[in-house]
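Database export, one record per block. Field names are fixed; values are copied verbatim from the stored entry.
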Amino acid sequence: MNTLTDTQVRLFASSKSWIEGEAVRQLYATAKLDGVRRAVGFPDLHPGKGSPVGAAFVTEGKIYPHLIGGDIGCGMALFKTGLFRRDAKLDRWAEKYFHLESPWDEEVGEFLAEHDLESTEFDSALGTIGGGNHFAELQMVEQVLDAKAFKLLGFGKQQLVVLVHSGSRGLGETTLRAHVDQHCGNGVEAESFAAEEYLRGHDFAVRWAKANRKLIARRFVATIGAEAESLWDGCHNSITRRESDGEVVWLHRKGAVDAESDFVVIPGSRGSMSYIVKPTGDSGNHAWSLAHGAGRKWARSDARQRIRERFSVSELAQTPLGGRVICEERDLLYEEAPTAYKNIEAVIADLVAAGLVSVIATLRPLLTYKTRKVRR
């Protein structure tokens, strides 16, 4: 049985960061699981269902599907559009329906074939955002802090971009449930048939989720008369096999994004900037991962109660930054209010101070789409 004496537990957050004690307890509890060699928490760390969100775990010889949960492949993706600041018509666009809650009305089979994906019972969910903290957001460049690095990103300072956050919808949950029904919430040997069976479904869900983000972006920008070109895609819920110091290890990410790409987008809330950062330093020191966002400050039930008392629906539909928010589920609008999240500036400051990233640019939210009520 592995113990903390031979497991590295690291939390990359300053004393100024607001992190619940329960999240830290979950980080250390997970570090005690058999085979865990490294447990890393980031400034966005917050409690999850049994294990924390905003963390990465490196295991040897075992995998733990329950650590990453049911939304296998969930992540963010950044796309550039052919639109520019001068083209923005926020009030007009905020009135459009987008229909991202409904099945795509074009030929899904062709899209699946283009992305080497098999047809499943979840075809109708492809190209839909889902609930929770998922979104499609039109953004503009607010500030460039590293001009040289910005030139390599592939879009201009005046160009509008889209950030999409979504996952594998019900597909990943089905994969997890099938595993849990057979093996409960226990880990399994990495070289076992059980692991092979789970990872087959897992890998498919990861690819499906990436394609889903691409289709969401295509549908979103088509409604406002544009096209979307992928610039970056970062999965933050996954299990990945890799070699480290000549040994095979398994990297579990739960709300932590890959730190080995040229750049990473770390979003705030609907009412704050998103950050484009460049990973720096030895990424193996922090499990080849980074924070995936601001992280929740309040649980959803707390947010509903607190926000309802402080803000009206109309106040939440337009942010202090001037952005529009389309969310016609009142409870979800409260749950996802900017004040329910941590301060993204503090999260980024902690990552910079720890030598994990440098900031390339910031992005201002213009139009955030979550959901409309389905019209019949």
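Remark 1: The first helix runs from residue 21 to 31.
Remark 2: The first strand starts at residue 8 and ends at 11.
End of record.
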